[in-house]
Amino acid sequence: MLFRIRLKLLFYFIVLVVLLTSVGLFFYKSSETVVSEYDENFQSFLLLNDISQRTNTITDKLHAYILEKEERYHEDYRKEKRKLIADQKKLYEVMKSHDVTLINFKNMIDSFLDESDATVGAFQRNNINDYSDHFNDVLNTSSFLHESTLAILNSKLTDYEKFYHQMEKQKQYYRLMSYSLFTAAFFLSTLLALWISGGITKPISMLSKAAKEISSGNLDGEDIKITTKDELKLLTETFNQMRTNLRQLVLEIKQKSELDKLLKETELRRLQHQINPHFLFNTLNTVSKLAYFEEAEQTSRLIEAVAAILRYNLGDLNQASTLRDEVRIVKEYFFIQQTRFGDRIKFKTDIQQDCLDIEVPRLILQPLVENAFIHGVESYEEDGEICLHIDRFLEWIVIEVIDNGKGMGETVKQRLLKYREENGFELNNTKSHGHSTSIGVKNVIRRLQLFYQQQAIVEIESQAGNGTTFRLKIPNGNQGGDCFVESTGC
Fold first, then answer.
1. What is the reported pLDDT for 484?
2. Is 197 helix (H, G, I), strand (E, B) or coil?
3. In which residue ranges of the chain is pLDDT below 50?
4. Are residues 159 and 301 in the same domain?
5. What's the start-to-end Cα distance of the chain, in Å?
6. How far apart are CA 119 and CA 127, in angstroms?
7. Residues 304 and 389 in one domain
8. What CATH number is associated with residue 132?
9. Residue 208 included in any domain
10. Number of folded domains in the chain?
11. How far apart are the C-alpha atoms of 13 and 231, rounded to whole Å?
């Protein structure tokens, strides 16, 4: 699931608010508990004091009623009595204790109220002896109540002193806990903020650095890798794809520029000397001798071969040809050289015809055959041999130009395969001796690599004194023709 930056920030603020709110609620509950305990103790003190004061008030009202015999004192007595009963119930609710002292205190209040009612009843019956005895009991009970109140207050104060010390310790504990919790909340929120901000700023920093490298012309940096799943991931993947596309585009431009340079240089050489004078001289010399010794039929065939080669070589190099046309021109070249050298040189072919209809760059076979002839077998007085072999192998069309000439060393072989030099593209800068074209082997190799976008398209097998094999591996594109083999003993 895409975890967006806005959700990250929202998550951070929610966690921070929940964390701080939890700390605040914890301390609020703790302080509320302390205040509640304090309030209960304080209310119990007030109630005990009220009960003690109210017993005195009841005694005074009762004594005034006996002396003055006025009804208003009797009414005040009853009001204070009701208040004392209410305070008695509230005391039980507040103190929530059922120890012996509290039970005795309650019984004394009940006795005090009973004796007070008995005094009022005896007084209203004018029974002097009875109300006098009951009033004395009221005074005695009131005195006991005061003493019990003081005893309970003393006990409560002792407990309160313990509570106070406990509350002090708890206050210290809460203070330490508050520092710890707020420190933990601060560090946790800081780490969370660093994590979220790092997840945002780190990819942006990496993108900025990569963008600076691209602006300076460096497109070879590694792809930026991030682990987040937000908008920055999509941005980074798009940036990586953009840089890959730029690299590919620059590579294509360089390759096209290189191919254009190859073709322009080849075209320039062809314009400078459409056909090598040495080759033309040797061919015309042969034609002259044939015209002298033979009938005109063979001469006509030789001239047709020369014309076919000239016509094909002067064609547009930018246009692709077919392997069939390339083979046809090579056979014309074979015919001319066999006419020149007779039995000194043998030319053989082993060609599978259904492989010939694929498209290939123009002028790739003739330069290889010429190279095999001139640098391989031209100097032989006899048993020189060049073979052209074309066959299908899996998804490849394999073309081999094989000669039994002088061969070449490893240094020469690597120099042919190496098309780049420190100062640019190294094409065919050496003079050609006896070539019908000025297109060298390096030019052929590089045009094939650019045409098929593959580097390992040419293989050279050769050892000094053991001949040379040029092997071209052409991707099998178009299918064509019936499958039959034309062979002349290769």
1. 40
2. helix
3. 1-2, 271-274, 420-432, 438, 478-485
4. no
5. 66
6. 9
7. yes
8. 1.20.1330
9. no
10. 3
11. 20
Say yes or no: 386 and 278 in one domain.
Answer: yes
Residue with tokens 């390339």: 326
Tens digit of pLDDT for each residue in 423-436?
333 444 444 455 55
pTM value is 0.46
Give ∠ CA 165-166-170 in degrees, rounded to 5: 120
The reply to whether 342 and 471 lie within a common domain is: yes
* Domain presence at residue 303: yes
Contacts of 390-393 with CB under 8 Å at 24 or more apart are 390/323, 390/327, 390/350, 390/351, 390/352, 390/355, 390/356, 391/350, 391/352, 391/355, 392/352, 392/354, 392/355, 392/476
Is 365 in a helix, a strand, or coil? helix
Q: Which residue range(s) make up the domain with 33?
A: 5-198
Q: Which two tokens stand for residue 475?
A: 């991707």
Find the Cα–Cα–Cα–Cα dihedral 463, 464, 468, 469, rounded to 10°: 10
Q: Are residues 265 and 375 in the same domain?
A: no
133 located within any domain: yes
Taking the CB of residue 20, how many other CB atoms lie within 10 A of it? 15
SS3 294: coil
pLDDT of residue 428: 44
Instruction: Residue 142: count other Cβ atoms within 10 Å of its Cβ.
Output: 20
